Amino acid sequence: MKTQTMSISEFMSGEYKKKSKKKTSKVASSILPIALLPTVASAQTPESVPVGATEWMSEKALETLAHALDPLVDLMVALSFPIASVVIIGSCFFFMLGKSDRAWTGIQNAGLGYVLIQIMPLLLNVLKEVGGAI
Fold first, then answer.
1. Residue 42 and residue 3: Cα distance in Å, rounded?
2. Which residues of 2-26 are buried (b: 16+ CB within 10 A; e: fewer)?
3. Are 20 and 6 in contact (CB under 8 A)?
């Protein structure tokens, strides 16, 4: 990016904006004849389907929101097995201490948490399809 120096009076009066507009008009006038030249690829242009701006924007917004949590979901799926294993091993120590009720509760909670985290991507895809159908 080119550094531009100006005085405070030029900045406050807005003269620098007038100078930059003249540059863009030269560029636009030099590109215009090139854009009007026929090209070989223009004979084989595919048919375009007209889409309204609101439809296009809603599709892009849905696509962005649908994939915003993908890194977090992938991280949770990757870490669920090691964490569930540690919790189950910790619950096994409660068996050795004679607290079998607390041990079974810990094992059940770890197993249920592991299964729910593993099916979370499937549930998110179902929610995405339901949102797309509406």
1. 40
2. eeeeeeeeeeeeeeeeeeeeeeeee
3. no
Provide the residue type at 48 as one letter.
S
130 pLDDT more than 90: no
Look up residue 99 and give its amino acid.
K
Instruction: Measure the CA–CA gap between 113 and 91, rounded to whole angstroms.
Output: 14
Model confidence band, residue 20 (pLDDT cutoffs 50, 70, 90): low
The whole-angstrom separation of Cα 108 and Cα 115 is: 11
Task: Copy the structure tokens of residue 52.
Answer: 């309204």
Token pair belonging to 45? 């242009």
Asked if residue 126 lies in contact with residue 64, where contact means CB atoms within 8 angstroms, the answer is no
